[in-house]
Amino acid sequence: MAEQQMSEEQLKALQEKIKQMSPEELKEFQKKQCIFCQIVSGNVQSKKVYEDEHVLAILDINPSNPGHLLVMPKEHYSIMPQIPNEEIEHIFLAVKMLSNASLRALEVQGSNVLVANGVTAGQRAQHFMVHLIPRKDNDNLVFELPQKTIPEKQLLEIAEKLAKNLGSRHEKKEPVQIPQIPKQKEIIEAEFDESAPGKKPASEEPEKKTIKSMPKTKNPPKKNDIDLDDIAKMFGAK
Amino acid sequence: MKSKESCLLCQIVADKIPSYKVYEDDLTLAVLDVNGANPGHCFVIPKNHYPILEQVPDNELSNSFIVANKISSAIFEVLKVQGTNIFVRNGIPAGQIVAHFMINVIPRRENDNINLQLTPKQLSEEEMSTVELKLKEQLKGKGVEKTQRVQKSAAESHKQEPITDDEDNYFMRQLRRIP
Fold this sequence. Notes:
The complex is a heterodimer of chains A (238) and B (179).
Chain A: H1 8-20, H2 23-33, H3 35-41, E1 48-51, E2 55-59, E3 69-73, H4 85-105, E4 110-117, E5 130-135, E6 145-146, H5 152-165, H6 184-192, E7 210-211, H7 228-234
Antiparallel strand pairs in A: 1-2, 2-3, 3-5, 4-5, 6-7
Chain B: H1 8-13, E1 21-24, E2 28-32, E3 42-46, H2 58-79, E4 83-90, E5 103-108, H3 125-139, H4 153-157, H5 170-177
């Protein structure tokens, strides 16, 4: 994010310096370098839409969709595992409130909540933040989660290790026949069959391995404004 | 009315469908996804049935995210991965496929074919301002309510180990890689 052009030499020197730093120094250094800490303190301008004691929500200047928000703790944390439970609670209750507000204010019908921990996961800023992205049909935004076939033995092994690490007991049982999670189309039909026929996403390839947001169509169907209650009704709730 | 009986995840909660559970408390359950995006992909769900995020009561929602954070930390430690994503698909246009609110916790490795890339759209200054105004208007007078921080299943059943600033700590090493 706060990337400035540096010569190779400068970069090397900086990397060397960072390597030498104690964890405390490193933390201090990162805070000073952190553009989001500067935004929190008001030194750098931003479009703030919500702020309280613990949390700040601003519009992303490179939004994936209109209303794309960055929800961040005011305190500097680099990654999520460092954050105390009370802060996690506050941050995600803010996310809930903000998602609710954008459903109402921006006439969207959904949202994605995304956190990236680590560079490999797509983390680009050194300040922990939650992306909240309003979604509507045919918005040309695609997230893909492949569905991989994971061997039973591996599943069992991972489940045991994780359960142990989490301090919970994983009852060791004989490998059971795990029913395959139905593919996308089946689930949609099973779960959403009460939505208006026009609202059913048209997925022509039931065997599709990846889950895409929405097929792109040239003429998106006109939709009426949808409020939270309508969205709930699509799922068959009250 | 779709009810709990027809919900795949409610049946997992009720143990009617076998699953690889990795964590469970009064409010929340975490299970390995058998067709995960990567080995170790877990989903965290409130035990009660709520289709979308906005319907999940505050204490159940925060407990779920606290659990998701714990799972994410455990994944780092156990699977030695380079990253994790916390990902929620809320509503049909957002890609939600099961009508039971769910948080995905996904281990990440290089070149793992997962696309959670945020692609920017060009918005005019005017569009940005309009969105800003609409959201601010909607949020007027609203705030995160101080919740009764008693209902802390996850927090209490599992002692929280703060991340130490130990040299060899995995997270600290990751930190250094962040530009």
